[in-house]
Every structure is written in structure tokens, then in C-alpha cells.
Amino acid sequence: MVAALTALGAPASADDATPDGDEAAALTGSVLPNNAGIGDRVAVYSAGWAPDTQVQAVLCGDLAIGGSQACDLPRAALGSADDEGVVRLQLALQRPPRPCPCVVHLSPFSGGTEVVDVPINVAGVRMGTPPVRETPEPADLTIEGAVVDGGGSVLRRLLGLGGDARVVITISNDGGVAGAVPELRYGFGSGAVETSETMLPGVVVPAGESREVMLDVDVPVAAVGTQMAVVGWADRTGLLVDAEWSTVPWLAIVLLLIPLPVGLLWHRARRRPADDEGLPPAPPEPTYPLPDVVYVDGVGGLLVRPGALRRSQLRRVGGRLSAEDLALLAAGGRVDPQPVGRGAPGPVPHVVTDLSP
């Protein structure tokens, strides 16, 4: 008679669902013959596995309580599930490390939480009292932290065009069994961020390990300064975890500032001719034989070369004299200076009548 089987595994999660939304079929198994002795070969049959799963079958004492130390691992049999999830194996029986009651223990070769233990009577192996099976601690998932990884391409960030950013969330499991990450709530932006969005990661965290969950968020256009990502459980248990990310559209700022100095230079270039109005044109350098500024004793004033007026801080030229006028002044006479303008003839010295800064 085929003995009943016991299926041990973690609670069903989202990953255990069929495409129609139903839970995956329960694992089943049988051993024929069920009464055998040391050196015999038995046929092992099991169903309900995912196609192509590598399944290992091994004879264990103590009802396989205590793990691999109770099993005859050197003579374990290995096979793959077919397209219908069925595994067929031949297992040679040898004395297990621990006494019976014995089982044929089936489990995924690459590790997993789903196992099947099929009881079997093995003649020639003494009977003992198996240890008490320890109940594993339930899954204990915690959000350890989060970081924000970039936002769109480098060019989009430099131009402030927004795009996608990725929030990497680290979730650890301090429990004794694997656990599926429940629904998360999150928010992303500047200022006071609301956790109004939700997502179901579909990630299982093995016992005692941690896994990363990737979350895509939108960076708004023209975002400047610190952006904040906030993540927590959707049922509002536990603490919220946040992460900061700073962005400045440097290239856009530079492109906006470039016209400013260009405009200032253009404005100065347009104003320069107006600033020179009222000054006579500068004579050619060889036509003026004196230094830029000469004090005339007979006049009691300064004689300034016209070209030097543009480089000095002299603010106003009050009139224009000819060489004859200057000679008359030096001799003690009086003259009436001609008005200063661009139409005045010839480059001649000017007498400065106002030296105020």
C-alpha cells in the first residue's frame, strides 16, 4: 500500500499562482515498493513540480528531521520534471546515518522551500525515536533602506528635462522561512512627499537573507535641488524609509546665462559713440609733438592732447582755441573760446576749464 505523504513548505505567495490566478498544484509523491531492504532499488514518483525543475530524492532517517545529517546523500538520485511537472527516479537503498522511521525526501536540487517526504519501511535499519520537529520562525521582513539611482540620461538631467529615476529598496528577512514582499506604498518629489502610489514587487526573500526591489519613479521637468523618495508597507505598519537625490540642470542654466554677458557687451558697444560726442576726433600721433598734459606758465592752465581726453577722467572741455589764441593768452591778452564740436576745424590743443572729477 502506498503510504500517505507530508508536504512541507512556505505559505503560498504570489509566485505560487497559476496564470488563471489559482494556487499551484500541491506536490505529491509515492515510492514502490514501499517495503524494501538495504540494497534494494525502489521507484520514486512525484508530481506537481514546475517543468524542468531539478529534483533530488534521498533516503533519510529520523523522518528527515535535522536536515541533511540524517540522509544518505552519497546515494541520492537526481532527475528533472517533465512538461507536466512529473519526476520519475530510481533510488538505491543503503543504511541512512540516522535510525528509522525513514522517508524518501524529495526537494529542489538548487534549493527551495517546497519538499515532499514519503514514508518507507526499510528492513535491516533499526528503529529509533525521531527528534521533535522545530517549528521555524515565520518570515520577518524589514525595509532596511533605499537609495535613488539617477534620473533619465545624463543629457536629460543636465538640461532639466526630467525622466525616470530608480529607487533601490533593500528588504531583509530575519525569520526562519522565506517570505514574499508585500505591497509597498511610495512617493517621490520635493518638499513634503505623499506616499500615495502602491506596487506589489513579486519578490521572495529567503530566510536570513536580503533582496533588492527596484522601483521606477518620474523626475519632473525642471526639477532643481533635493528630490525625496519615501517608501513603506502599504498596510502602514513599520517605519517609512526615505532617500534623497539632488539634481541641478547645469547645462540649461549656462545656456540661459550666456545671453547676459553678450547683451552687456552689445549695449556697451552701442553706447560708446554717444559717450564720445562733444570731443574732437583724435589727431594722428605724429602731429602732436608735446606730452599728453603740459602746464602753460603764461596761461596758468593745462594743455591736454585731444587723444588723452578719451583715456583720462576729465569730464568736460569748455572751449576750443587756435594756436594764435594761445599765443595771445600767453602774452596776457584775452580771447573768446570757440564752442567744442565734431565740426570744429583741425586738431589743436585744448585748454581745460573744468578739472572736476
What does this structure look like?
The protein has 357 residues and is mostly beta strands. Strand 19 (293-296) and strand 20 (301-304) form a beta hairpin. The radius of gyration is 48 Å and the shape is rod-shaped. The termini are far apart. The protein contains five helices and 21 strands. The strands form six sheets. Strands 1, 3, 5, 6, 8 and 9 form a six-stranded mixed sheet that branches.
Q: What is the string of helix and strand elements?
A: EEEEEEEEEEHEEEEEEEEHHEEHHE
Rg estimate, integer Å: 48 Å
Oligomer: single chain
Low-pLDDT segments:
1-24, 158-162, 344-348, 350-357
- Biggest sheet overview: 6 strands, mixed
Q: What is the overall silhouette?
A: rod-shaped
Query: Proportion of β residues?
Result: 25-35%
Query: Ends: how far apart?
Result: 121 Å
Structural class: mainly beta
* Helical amount: 10-25%
Mean pLDDT: 75
How many distinct beta strands?
Answer: 21
Contiguous helical run count: 5
Secondary-structure topology with pairs:
Layout: E1 6-8, E2 28-32, E3 35-37, E4 41-47, E5 54-60, E6 77-80, E7 87-92, E8 102-108, E9 115-123, E10 141-151, H1 154-159, E11 163-173, E12 179-180, E13 184-189, E14 197-199, E15 204-205, E16 210-219, E17 225-233, E18 241-247, H2 250-257, H3 259-275, E19 293-296, E20 301-304, H4 306-309, H5 323-330, E21 350-351
Please give a handful of descriptors for the protein shown.
357 residues; mainly beta; six-stranded mixed beta sheet; four-stranded antiparallel beta sheet; 5 helices; rod-shaped; disordered N terminus; disordered C terminus
